[in-house]
Design a protein that fits this description.
eleven-stranded mixed sheet; alpha/beta; Amidase_CS; Amidase signature (AS) enzymes; 15 helices; catalytic activity; Indoleacetamide hydrolase; Amidase_dom
Length: 468
């Protein structure tokens, strides 16, 4: 019974709550028990807030349950998000005493929607890294194989949902830190258009590239969650003041007539053969459903990762300058090395990187004159073993973090909405994911296509055996 509830999607949990089959308090108790049972293995949570969640649930009225699709349902947030009265560690010793005075924008919106926060999830320290390895709070593992990485930097949010500790979670995505771990753990991960979900109240890593992202079990849950947290906050200079769409209204529509771009370059190169085969099956499905496959060519991607890092490290150094002065010895070796790299990047390099980003945005926007969506693999590799340093594909050695985010990083620079979702299981027993990318602020079409793929039933994957 407990496992059956824990792995339900939000829509299913809401149906149980609405029918009176379970109360919010009972639902919180189910997930609290799951956290107690599985957090030691998963390392998903840094700070569970069970008692506060129980109090919130106990005080909910029937009217409260009708406020939103997430009312009465628990969620978790990456420990970069401020939750009033709760420690925000950012996965680091540096913030061992940083108790939030207010809620982050997204958390405040969820609180108003009567969603119930179950706590703060683990991450790569200060979001610097794609493996999720953390020397302070432990390394999150993959629910399909705990000898494998969950991916990062939103590792705890992915592990929390994949292990059935919460049905949905917030993360941040600067180079793929929501989409990649979601793909590696068989979840739906969405990075909305930059500025669609304000980052106020979220510990910054790189202002130019930071996005708030979402992880859920299903596309419909993702659409509902986006409808709650999207909005405008003048405190966030990147936030965009435009109406929030009704994202769920397009779910269930067919995809006939949609033009789906298939990249000729970069996105299908140096990729696991089984991942390529899975994407070919997806292409065949969308074409049979009436979509038109259109070859597209991306701008030269040779220097794209260098451009991203040239933005990330000086901005991270700027964000941490005061803490480095006061608490430098508390930083982990990994992040200290990144900050040292930031000191070596000249203003000239930073400005050139900014200009590259503008070119990437312009050239990618031109592609959407030809297509409505772009389809790529989510990652070129499945989840790798904990402790993996490099992977080799087609004779090319690549750092594991670079491999995990090779297909996601570019869209943080362009800012386009991008979603990853499961589409197959690898013979090694691990999820394979696809990525759909859309026009600015056209999350509706991304979600429409993702839902069509999901509801076909042809690309569903089993629940993980660990934790169930």
């Amino acid at each position: 019974m407990t496992d059956n509830i824990a792995f339900k999607d939000v829509k299913g949990l809401k149906a149980m709550l609405s029918a009176g089959h379970i109360t919010p308090a009972e639902l919180i108790s189910v997930f609290a028990e799951r956290i107690d049972q599985h957090n030691e293995l998963s390392k998903a949570f840094i700070t569970p807030t069970i008692e506060a969640a129980k109090e919130h649930a106990a005080n909910m009225s029937r009217e409260d349950l009708e406020i939103s699709p997430f009312a009465g349902v628990p969620y978790a947030s990456k420990d970069l998000f401020d939750v009033k009265g709760v420690l925000t560690t950012a996965g680091s010793r540096v913030f061992h005493d940083r108790v939030a005075k207010t809620d982050a924008y997204a958390v405040a919106k969820l609180r108003a929607a009567q969603a119930i926060s179950l706590g703060k999830t683990n991450l790569h320290e200060f979001a610097y890294g794609a493996t999720g390895e953390n020397e302070v709070y432990g390394t999150c593992v993959n629910a399909y194989d705990p000898t494998r990485l969950a991916g990062g930097s939103s590792s705890g949010s992915a592990a929390a949902v994949a292990f059935g500790l919460v049905p949905a979670a917030l993360g941040t995505d600067t180079g793929g830190s929501v989409r990649a771990p979601a793909a590696l753990n068989g979840l739906v991960g969405l990075k909305p258009t930059i500025g669609r979900v304000p980052t106020s109240g979220v510990v910054p890593y790189c202002w130019t590239l930071d996005h708030v992202g979402l992880m859920t079990r299903t596309v419909e849950d993702c659409a509902d969650l986006l409808g709650i947290v999207a909005g405008y906050d003048p405190v966030d200079s990147a936030s965009v003041n435009r109406p929030v769409d009704h994202y769920g209204e397009v779910l269930g529509r067919d995809i006939g007539g949609l033009r789906i771009g298939i990249p000729r370059n970069f996105y299908y190169e140096r990729t696991d053969d089984e991942i390529l085969a899975a994407l070919e099956r997806v292409q065949e499905f969308v074409a049979a459903a009436g979509a038109k496959l259109v070859p597209v060519t991306f701008p030269d991607m040779e220097h794209s990762r260098t451009v991203s890092l040239t933005l990330q490290m000086p901005e991270a150094l700027s964000a941490h300058s005061a803490y480095v002065q006061e608490r430098g010895e508390l930083y982990g070796a990994d992040f200290r090395a990144g900050l040292a790299l930031g000191q070596c990047i000249l203003a000239e390099h930073y400005v050139k990187a900014k200009r590259f980003v503008e070119v990437y945005r312009q050239e990618t926007n031109k592609l959407f004159d030809e297509v409505d969506l772009i389809l790529t693999p989510a990652t070129p590799e499945i989840a790798q073993k904990v402790g993996t340093v490099t992977v080799t594909r087609n004779g090319v050695n690549e750092a594991i973090g670079n491999a995990i985010t090779r297909f996601t990083t570019f869209f943080n620079m362009t800012g386009h909405p991008a979603l990853t979702m499961p589409c197959a299981m690898h013979t090694e027993g691990l999820p394979i994911g696809l990525q759909l990318v859309g026009r600015y602020f056209d999350e509706k079409t991304v979600l429409q296509a993702a839902h069509a793929i999901e509801r076909s039933g042809r690309f569903s994957i089993p629940l993980p055996s660990f934790g169930s």
